[in-house]
Specification:
homodimer; alpha/beta; Creatine Amidinohydrolase, Chain A, domain 1; Creatine Amidinohydrolase; six-stranded mixed sheet; 9 helices; 16 strands; EC 3.4.13.9 (chains A, B); hydrolase (chains A, B); protease (chains A, B); Peptidase_M24B (chains A, B); proline dipeptidase activity (chains A, B)
Amino acid sequence: MQDNGIDVLLITDPANMYYLSGYDAWTFYVGQILVVIIDEEEPMWIGRDQDANGAHLTTWLDEKNIIPCPEHYYHSEMKHPMGFIARLVHLLSKSNRPIGVEMDMYYFTATTYASLKKELPNATFKDASTLVNWVRLIKSDQEIEYMKRAAQLVENAMTTGLEKINPGVRECDVIAEVYHELISGTIDYGGDYPAVAPLIPSGKETTALHLTWTDRKFNSNDFAILKLAGCYHRYHAPLSRTVSIGETSAQIKDLAKLCVEGLHAALETAKPGVTCEEVEAAWRKAIEPRGVVKDSYLGYSIGANYPPDWGGHTANLRKGDPTVLQPNMTFHMIPRLWYGQLGIEVSETFRVTETGCETFADYERKLFLK
Amino acid sequence: MQDNGIDVLLITDPANMYYLSGYDAWTFYVGQILVVIIDEEEPMWIGRDQDANGAHLTTWLDEKNIIPCPEHYYHSEMKHPMGFIARLVHLLSKSNRPIGVEMDMYYFTATTYASLKKELPNATFKDASTLVNWVRLIKSDQEIEYMKRAAQLVENAMTTGLEKINPGVRECDVIAEVYHELISGTIDYGGDYPAVAPLIPSGKETTALHLTWTDRKFNSNDFAILKLAGCYHRYHAPLSRTVSIGETSAQIKDLAKLCVEGLHAALETAKPGVTCEEVEAAWRKAIEPRGVVKDSYLGYSIGANYPPDWGGHTANLRKGDPTVLQPNMTFHMIPRLWYGQLGIEVSETFRVTETGCETFADYERKLFLK
């Protein structure tokens, strides 16, 4: 905040709210905010009246710093929760100080910003869109432990999903089993909801990566990608694998091998001191001699998150990203190759170690055949 | 659009995009838009390059109206997808016409709006936040059929959840079974992901309505609310029930009865010609003589939606909402009463009929005892 000349920081990203205060509830669909004031000991949580008890139960904040906003500010054409929040900032005599807002965060809508500016005409606003996200880039050992637990969940779910995919089985029945595995977790701990639903593009939909499941039945000559994440205490470990039902062509098998080779080349490159774009370049170098075209977006920082996205919105494994890898940065690397109407994806979530990197999951990297 | 003097409508709400074009994918976490131009036959879908195939597969749009935005516009500090979209609007010679934008929709961030204004300095922008939402208020028979199917899913999931809740069972294991039921669906059709995760506030968390599950075990003197929605082709039918493990106090039992009485009073009031606030008043009238305080937010319009919210953001069953009920409007009515640290909720999703209303689910209304 000091580096950016920000005295008051208004946090609306639920993952940033969680990181700073512990607040964890499905309430991000209504106006809520964490106010961080540079010379105050604690942030303030401001949210809907009926959710204040959730803040008491999940945050480390003192009771006086949990401020319920009356219900009638919500879902109203006349009022906006930001009006209440702005008045509070004013009451705290902070309204003429530089205020940082997360301009490009989901849940900080154009109206939210307009309401804020209207109520605080003397304030100077600064874009602090990914200020806290960048702080979260390097994980603590505790966060790494959460991601390891998430990885255990996704391994189990992937095994269940791959087992379940068979001719005559509906996509929805595969995903039902996957969800069950992700949520019930292990004997030692349960799983949390992933920020993105499990995806299972199949057949010609494997080139349409973000379609969700249907109740279509797999046929005896089918193809699917399972794109899942385990989630533990909001920390994610995504993992993708591709499966062919029945025999597939030599080209597809070669392509799958190439995808795994590219993945390995990129993972071998990832270590402290190397940049994000160098990791992507290693992938591209491994696949380009074989004439395969691929966009340059190989992955992204990953950790705690909420719907609709589990990506960190900071460092990306792609051309032009100069971020230098450091120990305990964590990424989801998603090599993808397309062949006509079929897509192949073999992804890994990894952390940068002192000397290289290690994946969270330990899962065979290949095209699965059934 | 004509009534609002809007020539070009930029739709960013995924449920509105779905309603108008059929587009259905988990891609709302990146810039995507449906452009509706008042004198063009078809809307245009503009989204991320890798998702254009999903638009081909799910929409009824002609191929020429599916426009992929290059990958390098995304997750960039230099560019914004809205820059690409704005240029396209300009190329279409529409940039000096009145443009409607969904100012207060999730996924239309302050930055999105700023980018748009910067690229189209001659355009006039109008707030069209809930323009399409209001069009969606009255459901077609097809939509009602989807909600009936969703209701079948939630009935099954509620039965499974209530059966599974027992001393020594973890919350996550109950939710795992609930998810399985919601997604695997029936023999005839599968279920879709609900826009809000299944919620199961328990113990003192029953007054913190939007906390998600943990791996805490239920004890032999516990209390929980199951707050679920079935979802079919994005159409929701939510249902809440409260359960007490072991014997509970006479006060709680009385409160549960009162909650159901209030629900019945409100349902009996709901019919064409009555206003939303009159429905809420009937609930309040039924409970107020018994001295129970309750905020005035009794429910909201419901239908197709995407995370993070299944509410329609239009008509609300609460004080001050003059919306007149008409046949095939659909609402989720959520009577809630609190007693100290315990909360009771018994909710129903209903449609307005020609002469009254009918609930989608057929599920016993009471405090469940185990």
